[in-house]
Structure prediction request, 105 residues.
Amino acid sequence: MMVKQFSPEFLTALEMGLQLSPRERMAMIEELAASFRDESAWEVVTSDEPPMDDEEIAALMQIEPLPPAEVIALGLLGAWADMEIEDGAEWVNGQKRRKITLYKN
Prediction:
């Protein structure tokens, strides 16, 4: 599973939103929710297959780790590099510092 990074525009909007009063933030959330209700580009996916039963869902939820050789063979390496992150620990610590800074405001 790849973690999607937020765009600079999103982070700027979030920082600005966190500076609003609680009432203004709630109004913003309501406005965003309304924009989803009004969205006309939602794609409706239909299927001829019957819905899964509880057993099928439970089977899909089972986690079976892959052996390291299979991980390598499938090319499932380099998730940090794919996100242009050279040092995973430094990135995590930077996210923590940024989060603390956002919530202090």
